[in-house]
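Morning F.,

Quick status update on the modeling queue. The single chain you submitted on Monday has been processed. Sequence for confirmation:
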Amino acid sequence: MAQKLIRPGMKRNNLIKVNNVILLTLLAAFTLTGQKNSISYQREPVILGDRLELFVDSFLISNISNIEYRMHTPVDEGPVLFFDEPWEGIFSGYSTVIKDDTIYRLYYRGIPAIGADGSDQEVTCYAESADGINWVKPGLDMYQVSSSVKNNVILAHAAPVTHNFSPFRDDNPARTDDYRFKALGGLIDGLIPYGSSDGIHWIKMTSEPVIKGAEFDSQNVAFWSESEKCYICYMREWISLGDKAVRTVARSTSQDFIHWSAPVNMDFGGTPPENLYTNQTSPYFRAPHIYIAIAARFFPGKQVITDDEAERLGVNPSYYHDCSDAVLITSRGGYNYQRTFLEGFLRPGIGLNNWVSRTNYPALNIVRTGENEMSFYVNQNYAQETAHLRRYSLRIDGLASLHASAAEGFAETRPLIFKGTSLILNFSTSAAGYIIIELADEQGNVIAGRSSDDCLPVIGNETAREVRWKNGSDVSDLEGKVISMRIKMKDADLYSLKFE
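Structure tokens below.
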């Protein structure tokens, strides 16, 4: 078990958090069985209702043969915003993208010159978009920075909050309109809360930090969890592994955004510990009970480019001795992450510019940018004059899938109880491929009329296709009953499913 790292100025009673993690892990063992890269769940029925389920973890599947969980490769859509204003600079970062109805809002740190974390030179910048693709920096006239008020700065002279100011739209039904948006920022002394009615004009909600007891020297992200009925913050922490320190993630919860529980380190299910520079954990916008983390994985001291190459690129001399990529991690609440995939989700792009320190850091949140498309954003070319934010796209729900090769595979779900009249799949097949769904009752017997022989093979490439049997697609006679699905697949990907 990794031990808590005691750093100068830290209180020793923070070690209690490590004991809490051990206790939580032991308790979890009675309900969850840790496997190599996934969690195996008990056979109690899943109350599925009409919610969407993704195949980013093994939650829904109880039995699988000749099918794998496959992570998909994001499509590079190119730069969307350069950090080229005097108040932004080559060290701009810790970005957040929020889709607020018809407006996309972007927040990020600007700092014109290298300085200590929490420097008063750091500001919070803002940009807007109507489509998530084309962005503008509005002239807001709020703060005088670099001898001008014609800038897109929404927070200044608020160190250390502006080092890592990370906002979210508060979807708590009990929140007030004055605080429709909330944010946290701060460093070693703790995180300070801010609120806003419009996402642009921010006020401090308290003068003192509301979360203490962690390191916080990164982007610390918060949101309202509809599934857990509380605010959650995922934050930077450090642990010691022998003679080295490793960046990890801790979690705290609150009912009112002001009073927070003590941070507890997240459990990664026995997977190898890695430096996670940012965690970027947030509810998936189509299935908010699943938290998606596109986290920046950092490799300190792993130098890829030479001194001469760094000089030719114009990289700041302090920022090319390490490298990083992004990984896909998920959670369904509590203090557990699932690492279904240990490989990189986003590999650094072609060119040495992408192999410097602290580049390839994803922005917070995945957002919809088209009928069948979603996007996330990544800070690239860090510490270089070409520093910018870049967009990557995927099909809707296309982070991962159940994948079958040219040989037929089989998967069976856990027992489940659904709500709806039809089963909808997001899938793709080759011309030779197919997906066939068979339904079974609580005793495991095939339901008459819903056998694999009765199912019309699902063939094509669609984000929402009804499953049909010979007697039609209506499954309302099974609503509220315990059933399971048996899935046959060949040369196909199943990204998500739901009843509606």
